Structures
1.
Amino acid sequence: MTTHKVSTVLITGASSGFGEEFAKEYAKRGHRLILVARRKERLETLAQSLRKQHNVEVIVEPVDLSDITEITKLHSRLNDQGVAVDILINNAGHGLQGEFLESELESALSMIQLDIASLTAMTHLFGADMKKRKQGQILQISSILAFQGVENFAVYSAAKAYVLRFGEALHREFKPHNVTVTTLCPGLSDTGFVDAAQQRLTPAMRMMMMKAPPVVKAGISALDAGHMSVVAGLANKFTAMFFWATPRRLHQAVLSRIMNG
């Protein structure tokens, strides 16, 4: 489904990384934006810049997306204001590198809460509205790591596998209601995620790292084309094909070497 009209786009995790880039890309296209993240100051700075550059309406919503109650309040608040979300970009997420038993349990659970529970809540609430209107688009942000359980990324890769399979199922469930669900699987990208996840960059990872703009454009193009999922970047597509074509024991060992050195 290609969206030509000026739509309202809600972007989670919009204060940095892919979220910020999605905001810039949709602003270029003239859409009204709802920017959602915890850091109000960064959201306001981005909003002011986008209003000035592209003359678009930008709504700033500082929300702790790890709190399902706050997500429910956000949904209600927008409905009370008569704001209908046409495009939902479920970008907010958290990752951490390290041995599972050497990490704090709280860190693992907070990752699951944001990457799985909160994304599920956002999809349910705003997806229900789209179903009623018989129109909408949802882009779920997963990862190339969703294709495998990855050593030292146990919780993150498992969480992103949930996002991928969840999105694939909903692609078919929502299609009869004229709502497109597409899942974007980026590889390593220059978004600030590496620092936030305390991730070590191996030489192989540096070679495969992508800039954020082409990843975001790949996601939007796939969403507009109505695809079920997309892997961004030629090297990442080859990696995904390698996963599909080789025994699990082999490609898990190769991926572990790439990610951990």
2.
Amino acid sequence: MSAREEILARVAKAVAGAADVEIPRGYRVAAATGDLVGLFAERVDDYRAVVHVLPAAEVPGRIAELVTGRRMIVPDGFDLPGHQSWDDLHTADGVVTGCAVGIALTGTIVLDHGPGQGARAQTLVPDYHLCVVRADQIVSSVPEAIARLDPSRPLTWISGPSATSDIELNRVEGVHGPRTLEVIIST
């Protein structure tokens, strides 16, 4: 018997005959009301990301300004007229993506790597990530976000630029992903 099988057998023996207990799952789903775009922008900014809140008509122009002169990865499904996608992941300056959902309360962006969001490595290796979030993709809370997501898809949850702290609590950015996160919220 393997160690795993032995542990599982002990657990099964310990709970044998125990009564089934119903666990209440009355989670609060929607927490924030009002200006979700404003709250999301504020929380994303708290993470040291660069945030732009723009009318939808201005978004293509701002994207063009931000990517001009940069070797950007443009994933399949992201419409960026006039810009050639850079193919070499390790020499790219950055990536531009959309997202699956944004969470206002936490300032978190979730990618499910569908059309326009790129492969996971494309969003984690380059030093710069420009992400476009539409206002209709912003939800109040994590439970609302989870309800919109397909659990069978690969999910990347982004709360600001990649950062960690060393033993002396000095913040170090760019260790596990992009050092710079720039977010355009399209209203």
3.
Amino acid sequence: MQFYSTNRQSSQASLEEAVMTGLPADGGLYMPERIPLIPRAFFNNIAEMSIRDIAYVVASTMLGDDIDAAELKDIVYNTFTFDIPLRKISSDISVLELFHGPTLAFKDIGSRFLARIISHYSRNLDKPVNVLVATSGDSGGAVASGFHRVPGVRVFVLYPERGLSAKQRHQFTSLGDNVIPIEVLGTFDDCQRLVKEAFVDQDLRRKLNITSANSINICRLLPQMFYYFYAYSQLLSGQPDRIDSDGVVFSVPCGNLGNLTAGLLARKMGLPVKRFVVANNSNDSFTRFVRTGHFTPARPHHSIACAMDVGNPSNLSRITDMYNAAPAPISSDMKAYSYSDDEIADSIADLYRSHGYIADPHAATAYRALAEDLKDGENGIFLATAHPAKFADIVGRITGTEIKNPQQDSTGCISVRHDVPKITPALQALKKILITST
């Protein structure tokens, strides 16, 4: 499989080049040259398949020409050491719980897969690989966990000075070893911009092997397709006679749009999806784009659903590329909604009061959008991207319950054990840390 840049100004790259460089030289994002269709027969047996088996079929269909089958299977199987259960909320709405991994967030899946892919390709390099990741909430902890103590790899986690919970910060600031946190005196968009600027800085690239672990890296994004297929398989096994032939409606809490992009790719590979529901908080630049066809970036502001505090999502370029920049098909394939903090809080309360389900703010946003959009006779699934314990204060206050952390280890501690450098959102400040840390 070859990969092209969404800016169309760089030559195509192999999987190894796309993964290990992170971004094309022209500043675009890598996309597969073709999206292979999974044979229809696969869906005849999908209801009986495990997440590992489903993921291996999807991965081998997309990447099987690039990685030996046995090694790819090992990568997939070692990624999924935990389940991703689908739980019924009502007769027509279910929730896919993506937070049962080591850092209680959906990004564990993509990060663990990417760490193993990078480890596969870095074996013969003469210099360490430097992984850059910008986080608005859960990416930092998931990437740090996935790469912690991986030989020959250093991880630099850029995070904004405001917005993250203490627990989210602790998951990557407390590790040490090869994980280096960097606090940026700005917003998540500033962190993301710095990562992109680092990749197109030729002086930096001559000195260091650098790649990204954000969803701008194609192999952080591709494994997120796997759980869409698994969600469908679980729904099919539970009520096979009630699934609309047009497929399922997925509601996705959207920040940097990696999750949504993966869902769109899964649909192009053959997964029966009727439409996607886009759920935003008050940072609604993408909602406005879906509704109007015009995108205007905005400076993000803080909300209780902080992982969606993004005003200029990088994966927008992949989505528009898939649709050839035509807004009409986008607005027909997805519906978009945005909500204030008060509305998100009301949704947390409603889920608990009406269904006894405790959701984090992002899942509650996706639930509200799905409940508003779903039509009679349709089956809907909303994605729960983080465990409510990561937002224990907010969720506990709204529901009146004590939110317990299911992991009885250091993730429950909120103290920071290592000194964290702070930088202005300028490339030279980042370069100084990257070069002096190597």
